[in-house]
Amino acid sequence: MIWQQLSHWTCLVKALIFGLLLQPLMTQPSIITQPNFVLLMADDLGIGDVGCYGNDTIRTPNIDRLAREGVKLTQHITAAPLCTPSRAAFLTGRYPIRSGMDAINNYRVIFWNGGSGGLPPNETTFAKILQQQGYSTGLIGKWHLGVNCEHRNDHCHHPLNHGFDYFYGMPFTLISDCQTTEEPEMDRAFRRKVWLYTQMIVLATLTTAIGRITGLFSVHWKTVICLAVFTLLFFVSWFSSYGFVRYWNCIIMRNHEVTEQPMVTERTTSFILRESISFIERNKHKPFLLFLSFLHSHTPLLTTDKFLGKSSHGLYGDNVEEMDWMVGQVLDAIDKEGLERNTLVYFASDHGGWLERQEGKRQLGGWNGIYRGGKAMGGWEGGIRIPGIFRWPGVLPAGKVISEPTSLMDIYPTVIHLAGGAVPQDRVIDGRDLMPLLQGTVDHSEHNFLFHYCGTHLHAVRWHQKDSGAIWKAHYVTPNFRPLGAGGCYDRGFCPCFGEGVTHHDPPLLYDLSQDPSESQPLSADTEPLFDTVIEQIERATEEHRRTLTTVPQQLSVYNIIWKPWLQPCCGTFPFCWCDKEGDDKLADL
C-alpha cells in the first residue's frame, strides 16, 4: 500500500515537472536571455513628422505600427541637438561633454572624414560590451563620429574600433555636396573663418620670419616653421572645401575598405536596406545587435523615384515616407525569420527637425509639432524632444504611452542589462535602465534632473518633481531668433550657443512643461509661488552635476576638425581617390 502511494506521488511530481517544462518560453519574459536588438535611428527627423505623434498628413504606417504594438515615449530627450554629440551620447550613455564630443567653439560636429577628432578609443560603447557578451554587432548607415587619429589607416575612431563587427555606410554624414544637382551645403561661415585664420597665420608667419632675418626680435626658426605648417594646413582645408568635398566626405565604406568614392547616391538607399536585411538573415541563429542609422531625413533628402512626389509635404515628406517603408521592410525581415518575439526594436531620431533648412519656398527640414525651436538649439524642446518607441511582443505591453522624462542615453544601460552585461564602473553613466518603466513595474523614470547643453554651454535644466507631477525647466541661455518673431535663426541657418547670438537670463526663464509643453508662458516669482524654491533646487543639482565633470581632450577643437591630407580615407593613390567597388553588385530591387 505504501509503495502504491509513493508510486502515485512520483507520477504526480513527474507530471508537474513535465507540464512546467512544456510552458512556452514567452510566458516567462524574465527568463529570456540575450534578445536581439534592432535600433533604428532617423537623422534630423522632427517629433511632429510622425503619425503616432500627431502628424496626419505624412504617412508613417510602419512607425505607427511599432507604437501600436509597443510602448511610445512622449518625453524622450536627446543629450544634444546636433548629430555628432547626440550619437556619441547614445552609444556611450554619457553626456557628450564627458567624452570631449561637445564643442567650446561653433564647430559642433565633425566636418571632415580627414579630421583627427572623433569618439575617443577609451570610450566604451554598448556595442563593445555586447560584442564581449557574444553578440554579432553591425552598424549600417551613418556614423559621423570620426575615422582616424594619426594616420590614414589607424581607424581609431572607426565603428570597428568601437565594438561593431561589421560596418557598411557613410563614415561622415549626408550633405548637399554629395549630390551634384544640389547647391553646396558645406558651412559657408566655416569657409570664411578658415580663410580669415589662414590670412592671420600668414601674417604672423611673415612677421616672425622678417623679425628673425632682420634681427628686430629673437624668435626660433622652429616657431617660424610651425607657423608655416599651420598656414599650409588652414590653406589646404579652405581650398579643399571648394570642389573636393564630394570626394573627401561623400564616401561609402565596408568595414575598413572604401568602396565608393564618391558615393553613388542613386543606389545608396537600396544598398543600405539590402545590407540591413542581409545582416539579420546572416545572424538569425545567434544573438545580434543591428544599429540601422538612417541617412533619411537629412538633406539632400535622397529619395528613390518610387516615392518622389507621393507625399503632401514635397521632397521632405517623400523622404520620410520612404524611410517609413524601409522600417516596414526591416520589420518584415524580422517576422519572416520568426524573430519578432525575441527582438527588441527601438525607433528614435538623433535630435529635432531643422527649421531653418530651406531653399526658396521649399522647406527641406522637419517639423517639431507644438514644441518650440529645433535642431542646434540646446534648450528649447523642439531641438531635443524626439520620437521614442520600443516594441518587444510578449515582453512589453502593446499600445502603452509613457509621459515620464527619458533620455536617448537610457538605451545604453537598457541593452547592456538585457544582454547580460554590466555597465562600466570606472566612469559616470548618465543613462538609466528603462525596462522597469517600460514593463510597468515602476511608475516613474529614474531621472530627477536632465541637463541640456548647447556645445559645452549649459542652456537649460529639467527637474521632474515626482511628488507633484510637475516638470520644471529653467532656461539660463536662449538663442536670439531672427527675424524677430520667427521660431529660428533664419539669418544664420543655425542657432549659436554663445556670443551675440544668445541671451542670458538671470533669473532664468522657468516653465512647467506638464502644463505648458510648448514653453509659451514663462513663470515668475509673481505668478508662481514655488519659483524661488524650484530655481534653488535646480541650481543645487546643477552644482552637483558640474562636480562630476572632468577635463578631457576636446575632440571638436579647431585643430581636430580641420582637414588633414594624411588622414583622408582614400581608395586610390592619394590625392587621386576614386573607386566604385559596388558597381558590379546587382542593385537591390526596390
Automatic annotation (TrEMBL):
Ranges where the Sulfatase N-terminal domain occurs: 35-420
Origin superkingdom: Eukaryota
Spans traversing the lipid bilayer: 194-213, 219-245
Span of the signal peptide: 1-27
CDD domains registered for this protein in UniProt: ES
One of the record's GO cellular component terms: intracellular organelle lumen
GO MF terms, alphabetically ordered: arylsulfatase activity; metal ion binding
Cofactor names: Ca(2+)
Entry keyword set: Calcium, Hydrolase, Membrane, Metal-binding, Signal, Transmembrane, Transmembrane helix
One Pfam family matching this protein: Sulfatase_C
Family the entry assigns: Belongs to the sulfatase family.
Protein name (database record): Arylsulfatase H-like
Organism: Coturnix japonica (Japanese quail)
